Amino acid sequence: MDAPNEKTNEEGQPLTGKPWMYRSRRIGPLKLPAYASPPIQLGLVAFVCFLCPGMFNALQGLGGGGQFDATTSNNSNVALYSTFSVLGFFAGTFTNRLGIKLTLSLGGFGYFIYIASYLSYNHNQNAGFPIFAGALLGVCAGLLWSAQGAIMMSYPPEASKGRYISWFWMIFNFGAVLGSLIPLGQNIHNSTGSVNDGTYIGFMVLTFCGAALAWCLVDARHVQRADGSHVVLMKNPTWKSEVLGLLETLRTDSWVVFLFPMFIASNWFYTYQFNGVNLARFNVRTRALNGVLYWGSQIIGAYVFGYALDISNIRRSIRAKAAWAVLFVITMVIWGGGYAWQRQYTREETSAEDYVKMDWTTGGYVGPMFLYMFYGFYDAAWQTCVYWFMGALTNNGRKLANFAGFYKGIQSAGAAIIFRIDALKAPYMNEFASCWALLAGSLLIALPLIFVKVKDTVSLEEDLKFSDETMQDVMATQGPETLDEKKH
């Protein structure tokens, strides 16, 4: 029986935050989850990413940051991913110490500055501002993505992690779809090289709103699942405890290094797809259309893989092996089709001043259009599986913040390298080959971890080893049903 002075929610579960956070709401026959529940909090994080990284992805998807020539954008992205790779690796420490609201808001503001630098460049051709803004965004993005990863992987119950990842990825990529519609509408009659000012201004407004939205989140310690359980965290984090926690993660979970090549590969192919395919072969309005289709296909990919990874009547260890096998097959099929396309042109050919870029009215457009859509589907499949593999190793929010930091830091180091390679005008076929080889090779390296370390469940006792919380602080007070499965 609860103590008389203890706060409880509608179902008698003890609360850690304000009572209003735990009240469910009705809209007609629909009963919404409580504000401090994992679905609502993940939804808010997804909309922050919808408005900030989503707009960034839409801009990058145009190739060259929407400019006619990709040189300045490549140099800016080298700076971005260089700082991202360094801070991103340690970002879990900052997330655990600063909290998710401040971390996400600081991260979102960096996207606003980055896009503002391209608006400036449109007028004064000062390459220094985009390069500085890229370096700043690397710091900010490291913070944002570490917080996002920790929330997405630690808030849901074990049985629902695939679906939560897919929900996030679908909402997030809908931001990129919307972001791609902006330049499509602005430039639908523009078949020249660069996008206009209105495109950048629209992106700036949206990214600013995303940074502000982060303050609507509740602290992680207040989040409560449907069964009454809480996220495993540190109750009293300090800078010392979180720096030591980062080192402890590498010591106790050294198997995670088998995923590092998959981390590198996860953003490596963007440079080739955006600059070596979309920018190289298509005019600005067709690039915008391709962006809509690319990010829209990601929504489909996230849905398919996220829900498949949560099929309840198949053991999780079996699902992990099946996911690996499917990823390997589609790597061979989709990138095999990409090889056939890439054989048709070279960088020298598409860089010529008299080269006429393809429009959606050009004969033969349908084939590369579908290839680009499959590239988008593949990206979502890859990202969803990588996040799910990490989430299958632990449920500890503190440890998963470090995993997310490792992921984004190493991913960004790879992106910095390939953007620099592209800035040096490497042949497109060489860039393509590096993408395909890295994707296939990284899957082979990850195989031992998937076979040995992904278990059917992780015990609460195991999760608590990396925390100063007790069983009573986080354990469920009801049955094991999850919030999204609960019938009202």
Write a structural description.
Helix content is 67%, strand content 1%. It has helices at residues 38-51, 53-61, 71-98, 100-124, 128-154, 161-186, 197-213, 239-252, 260-281, 284-308, 316-342, 347-351, 366-391, 397-423, 428-452, 460-464, 471-474, and strands at 25-27, 30-32. It contains 17 helices and two strands. A two-stranded antiparallel ribbon has the order 1-2. Strand 1 and strand 2 form a beta hairpin. It is mostly helical and 488 residues long. Helix 6 (161-186) packs antiparallel against helix 7 (197-213). The model is unreliable at 1-7, 9-13 and 479-488 (pLDDT under 50).
Summarize the structure.
By secondary structure, the chain is mainly α. The protein has 17 helices and 2 strands. A hairpin with a 2-residue loop joins strand 1 and strand 2.
What fraction strand? under 5%
What does the oligomeric state look like here?
single chain
User: Which residues sit in consecutive blocks of at least 5 with pLDDT less than 50?
Assistant: 1-7, 9-13, 479-488
Placed side by side, the strands forming the largest sheet appear as 1-2
Question: What's the SSE pattern?
Answer: EEHHHHHHHHHHHHHHHHH
Q: Determine the fraction of residues in helical runs and give it as a percent range.
A: 55-70%
Please count the beta strands (DSSP E, at least 2 residues each).
2
| Major beta sheet summary | 2 strands, antiparallel
Number of helices: 17
Shape: globular
Between the first and last Cα atoms, what is the distance in angstroms? 24 Å
Helix and strand content put the structural class at mainly alpha
* Estimated radius of gyration: 22 Å
